[in-house]
Write a structure and sequence with these properties.
- The chain has 264 residues and is α/β, with parallel strands linked by helices.
- The chain has eleven helices and eight strands.
- It has an eight-stranded parallel β-barrel with strand order 1-2-3-4-5-6-7-8, surrounded by eight helices.
- Helix 5 links the parallel strand 3 and strand 4.
- The radius of gyration is 17 Å and the shape is globular.
- The model has no long low-confidence stretch (mean pLDDT 98).
- The structure holds 3-methyl-2-oxobutanoic acid.
- 3-methyl-2-oxobutanoic acid binds next to strand 6.
């Protein structure tokens, strides 16, 4: 049975964790979806991972469509979430046109980064049959405004704002909230105060699901490894084995551990 947003809601209601991994092509999409991953993220992280840029800002709509089409061809039943790239959703009308292109390329939902200002866009897409994931916390497309890739929500004003944004986005029709690099206590609070599933990356163990960039979990990303990343290839004898180990570790609560988690 293919994974749908209803499947993810049922996981949350049952208190069962689910998993998400990035893929950018047909081969990895096949490997990841047959290994039991529930959601494939065609992330704009491909700008850094595949293209070698120092941010996600140069990624274009044409590139996201190309990679989403490839992921669709390899996918074996996972839900495909495609990132809307920088400035492709600056207005609700622009978001609608571009989200439609990603859905036609094979996405089952789109992801957009930002807070309460996105509510009008979320409402517009949702009303027209496009499921939306709202990405809060460290939003990489805003790296220049944030002053770097830093943990968000450590001060209580910022934390309260993030809770308010998540609630407003759920009200507007968001089907998933994604939290990146936030203290685990705050991620836990947000997860409990919305009924939409919450996916975390660097957000502790209490979110409903986890996401990692595939190349990070395979230990092949050059440079320093982020605190929230575990190299699952270190103890596996194949790529499939490493992905299955990640799925098992998330489902049985072993990943993320305290060492992968940020505190307030
Ligand atoms: O683009 C991406 O891979 C992402 C994840 C880091 C959540 O947005």
């Amino acid at each position: 049975m293919p994974t749908t947003i209803q499947t993810l809601r049922a996981f949350k209601e049952a208190g069962e964790k689910f998993t998400c991994i990035t893929s950018y092509d047909a081969t990895f999409s096949h490997v990841v979806s047959t290994a039991g991953v529930d959601v494939i993220l065609v992330g704009d992280s491909l700008g850094m991972v595949l293209q070698g840029h120092d941010s996600t800002l140069p990624v274009t709509m044409e590139q996201m469509i190309y990679h989403t089409e490839g992921v669709k061809r390899g996918n074996q039943g996972a839900l495909i979430m495609a990132d809307m790239p920088f400035m492709s959703y600056a207005t609700p009308e622009q978001a609608l046109d571009n989200a439609a292109l990603l859905m036609q390329a094979g996405a089952h939902m789109v992801k957009i980064e930002g807070g309460e200002w996105l509510c009008e866009t979320i409402h517009m897409l949702s009303e027209r049959g496009i499921p939306v994931c709202a990405h809060l916390g460290l939003t990489p497309q805003s790296v220049n405004k944030l002053g770097g890739y830093k943990v968000q929500g450590r001060e209580s004003v910022q934390a309260d704002e993030m809770i308010a944004h998540a609630k407003a986005q759920e009200q507007a029709g968001a089907d998933i909230i994604l939290l990146e690099c936030v203290p685990s206590e705050l991620a836990d609070k947000i997860t409990r105060c919305v009924s939409t599933p919450v996916i975390g990356i660097g957000a502790g163990a209490d979110t409903d699901a986890q996401v990692l960039v595939l190349h990070d979990l395979l230990g092949i990303t050059p440079g320093r490894r982020a605190k929230f990343v575990k190299n699952f290839m270190a103890e596996a004898d194949s790529i499939e084995g490493a992905i299955k180990a990640y799925v098992d570790a998330v489902k049985n609560g072993q990943f993320p551990a305290t060492e992968h988690t940020f505190k307030a």
